[in-house]
Amino acid sequence: MIAVFVVLGCAAFLAPGLCCRPKEYPTTDGQCCPMCSEGTIVQRDCTSRSGTRCTRCKNGTFMNQPNGMGKCFTCTSCDSGHGLFVLQVCSDTTDTVCEVIDGYFCKHFDATGCSAAQTHTHCVPGERITEPGTSREDAQCEPCPPDFFSEHGVNCTDWTTCSGTQATLKKGSSITDVVCGDSSRHRYMLILPGSLFAALVVSLLVALGIKVKQMKLSSENKQTP
Prior knowledge:
Among the domains are: 19-74, Tumor Necrosis Factor Receptor, subunit A, domain 2; 80-119, Tumor Necrosis Factor Receptor, subunit A, domain 2, CATH 2.10.50; 127-183, Ribbon (Tumor Necrosis Factor Receptor, subunit A, domain 2), CATH 2.10.50.10. It is α+β, with helices and mostly antiparallel strands. The strands form eight sheets. The chain has a two-stranded antiparallel ribbon. A two-stranded antiparallel ribbon has the order 3-4. It has a two-stranded antiparallel sheet with strand order 5-6. Helices cover 24% and strands 28% of the residues. It has helices at residues 2-13, 183-223; strands at 24-26, 32-34, 40-44, 53-56, 61-62, 73-74, 84-88, 97-100, 104-110, 113-119, 127-131, 140-143, 148-149, 157-158, 166-170, 179-182. It comes from Champsocephalus gunnari (Mackerel icefish). The chain crosses the membrane at residues 188-210. TNFR-Cys repeats lie at residues 56-98. Keywords: Disulfide bond, Membrane, Signal, Transmembrane, Transmembrane helix.
C-alpha cells in the first residue's frame, strides 16, 4: 500500500518526467525514455513499442555523458594566435585538450586543458629574471641592485672597475656598464687642443709681423724721390 501511494503521489503531485529512473530522461509529453550513451544524442524519443533511437555526434562535436539531448557539444578550438596548440584532438566522446605554446603560460586551466593563455612577461633593461616563465606560471622580474647593470633584461652584471692607470670616461647606469679609458691619453687629449691653439697664435703673429714689415717697406719706397 505504501509503495502504491508513493507511485500515485509522484504521478499526481509532481511534474511529468521528474520520477524518471537513473539513466532515463523525460520527454516533452511526460514519458521517461532510456538515455543515449556517450558519443550519441537522441534522434527519436522512445515509444510504447520501441526504445530511444540515438545517433552519433558528427565531426567537430562530442557528447561526454549519457544524455537525453538532441544536440552535441561543439569541440573547443585551440587558437595558435592566442598561444594554444592541440594536445589531444576532439573525439565523439571527449572535447579537445589544449596546451600552451613555448613563451606563454596558462591563465585558465580546467579539466579539458588550457582555455586561455598569455605571453610571459619580458624583463626590461635594468631588470633581471628571478623566476623563468613556465607553462603554468609567468616570469618574475626585479630591478638590478646598485652598481650593477642589465642591458637586455636577463641577468645583472656588476660594473667594471677601472684600473689605476685608467680614467672613468663614462659612469655606469642600471642598463650600461662603466666606460674606462687610458688616463695618459685622456690628459694628452686635454693638453693637445691648448698646444694647437698656442701654435696657431704664434703663426698668426709671425704672419702679421711679416705683413706689417712689408707695408712699412712699401710706404718708405713711395716716399723716396
